[in-house]
Amino acid sequence: MKLAINYCPAADTLARDGALPVDLFKCPSPFDTDVSDHMPDLLERARKTRPVYVHFPLFAGNGSLRDVNWQKIVGVLTATATPYVNLHLETRSADFPDIPTDATDPDHQDQIARALIADVMLAVARLGAERVIVENVVARGSVLRPCIEPEVITRVVLETGCGLLLDTAHIRLTAEELGLDERAYVDALPLGQLRELHVTGAQPHEGRLRDSMPMGAEDWDLLEYVLAHIRNGRAAEPWVAALEYGGVGPGFDWRSDPSTIAEHTARLRALTDG
Q1: Which DSSP letter does residue 240 get?
Q2: What are the distances in angstroms from CA 231 to CA 191, 199, 228, 237?
Q3: How far apart are CA 139 and CA 265, in angstroms?
Q4: How many whole angstroms separate alpha carbon 180 and alpha carbon 170?
């Protein structure tokens, strides 16, 4: 599998100096205004140093995909040689006000699953199932519990034929929020359809776990558990493992430490090559 890292100026400098053992920069799409406002030429800057691929701010389960300009999406995929369009499996209370946030009723699970599937199929109809991946999100705030249940995620993947984007930090945050066992959660996901892997730290910040933080012992342990599944065939080998530490804008200025980036990418390279 290839190794990527979130694009940020610190990572760019390390790569130019030959001190960043990554194959790609993972970049936000041009449609992500939160980032483009701070660095409108991000893709152009990044591709001068490393090949790039794009991660889209697209969500399934809330009906928003009906308004997507798929021609522009395909244009970005083609221009950056990004193999998949990613969708976040996220529904919120505002989308289904009659469903409790912590719903466990099978009827509610079925309703959310059908909404997720309907949206994913919009992307599948445009691009083909082989070019669509869905990401596990965090059960926090107004996010409805059914959309993070492994059985719902598995149903979406199997019924649409799409792939899985597994985010280990999201698993740690969700497990902490709901009192679940992290490894059991991983094992319940459709790992045979794994196509992309996101890795970052989940560390305490302002009283709760936050992702896109430096990796700690528990983060590395969970990653090694997933990698063991890949090596023994329990999980498919993803095309890329992306370190999601670092980024652009005020939200990442304090989470883009060059020494952390250098240390983490070296360790991740050793693990993924092992």
Answers
A1: E
A2: 12, 17, 5, 8
A3: 28
A4: 12
Q: Dig out the tokens for 198 from the structure.
A: 């996101």
244: helix, strand or coil = coil
- Listed range (37-41, 72-76, 217-221) with the worst mean pLDDT: 37-41
- CA distance readout (Å), 72 to 56, 77, 79: 12, 9, 10
Tokens of 140: 């926090």
Residue-number span of the structural domain to which 74 is assigned: 2-273
Query: Can you give the CATH number for the domain in which 60 is found?
Result: 3.20.20.150
- The encoded tokens of residue 62 equal 């809330």
The alpha carbon of residue 27 and the mean position of all alpha carbons in its chain are separated, in whole angstroms, by 12
Determine the Cα–Cα distance for residues 50 and 16; give it in Å rounded to an integer.
9
Q: Three-class SS of residue 92?
A: strand
104-118 pLDDT per residue, tens: 999 999 999 999 999
pTM of the predicted model as reported, rounded to 2 decimal places: 0.96
Domain count, the chain: 1
Cα distances (angstroms) measured from residue 96 to each of 108, 130, 150, 208? 10, 29, 20, 26
The residue type found at 189 is L
